[in-house]
Amino acid sequence: MKCLLLGISLFIAVCLSAQQKPTDLDKSPMDMSYWPANYPILKMSGKVRDVPVARVIYGRPLKSGRDIFGGIIKYNELWRLGANEASEIEFFKNVKIDGRSIPKGRYTLYCIPTEKKWTLILNKDNFCWGNFSYDAKKDLLRTDVDINRNAENTEAFTIFFEETKNGAQLVILWDDLKAGLPISVIEDVVTKPKRN
After folding, report:
1. Mind listing the pLDDT tens digit for each residue in 50-90?
2. DSSP letter at 6?
3. Over the stretch 110-142, which tens digit does the pLDDT of each residue have?
4. β-bridge pairing 167-185 and 105-113
């Protein structure tokens, strides 16, 4: 019995000493944005009962005086659209992007920036670190979006949803550039049973 108690005590001591310390604050923290904006607060306050349309999860690198586009983000090369893990977008409803139906689900976002436009990519492979394991065979959508110059510089890479008349636009801001991806909801069609 003493050996059993001694063994259990030793096991507990080893487990407690093996716990890791918390990680340091990341230089590019993870962030999340919802459509509709502030969805968790709206849900907790009872102002919405439905699921959100979408959310995006992404790392937020800082400009920190660096040359961004054409500098640390190379033109014509695949970019994880943020920092650390590749950015992910989750649709809780079926949506339409660039005239194509996208089923609800979770997708990884990538970008191939050029000086005049960006190619945004939705890929079916999730939980990717950077773009090291990117597989073009798993692309669900590739679409080109225009980029615009902003009067103000955005220090921290930012993604958010901006509601529009026809749905929303996924807005991407960093440095002095802005890109937008229009998204609309595919309304569920409820069919009534036929009467005999």
Report:
1. 777 899 999 999 999 999 999 999 999 999 998 888 899 99
2. H
3. 999 999 999 999 999 887 776 667 899 999 999
4. unpaired
* Amino acid residing at 138: K
Alpha carbon 21 to chain centroid, angstroms: 27
- Spatial neighbors of 63 by CB under 8 A, at least 6 apart, are 153, 154, 155, 156, 174, 175
* Token digits of residue 135: 């597989």
Global confidence as pTM: 0.79
Place of tokens 């569920």: 188
Please tell me whether residue 145 adopts helix, strand or coil conformation: strand
Q: Quote the DSSP letter at residue 8.
A: H
Q: Distance between CA atoms of 185 and 18, rounded to whole angstroms?
A: 48
**Which of 171, 131, 180, 173 has the alpha carbon at shortest distance from 156?**
173
- Between CA 56 and CA 182 the distance in angstroms is 14
- Where b means 16+ CB within 10 Å and e means fewer, 126-144 reads eebeebeebeeeebebeee
Selection from 62, 64, 42 nearest residue 53 by Cα = 42
* Contact (CB, 8 A) for 131 and 98: no
CB neighbourhood size of 117 (10 A): 13
pLDDT in tens, 9-38: 655 655 555 556 666 666 677 788 888 776
145, 137, 149, 187: which is closest to 170 by C-alpha? 145
